[in-house]
Amino acid sequence: MEEEAHWIELDVGGMISSGVQPFPVVMERARALGRGEQLRLHVPFDPLPLRSVLLSEGFIVDVRERDGSAVVVEIRREEGARDTGGMNLDLRDVGEDQAMARVLEAASLLGRDEELVAHLKFFPADMLEELRSRPYEVECEEAGPGCRVVRIWRRLFIMGKTNLSPGN
Question: Which CATH number fits domain 84-168: 3.10.20.30, 3.30.110.40, 3.30.450.40, 3.40.50.720?
Answer without folding.
Answer: 3.30.110.40
